Amino acid sequence: MSHVWKPSVTVAAIITRQHQGRQEFLMIEEQTKDGIRINQAAGHLDPNESLHQAVIRETLEETAHDFVPEALVGTYMSKFVSPNSGEEVTYLRFAFCGTVSAQHDRPLDTGILRAMWMSYEEIRACHERHRSPLVLRCLDDYLAGQRAPLDLMYTHPSVTGQATN
Question: What is its EC number (predicted)?
Answer without folding.
Answer: 3.6.1.-
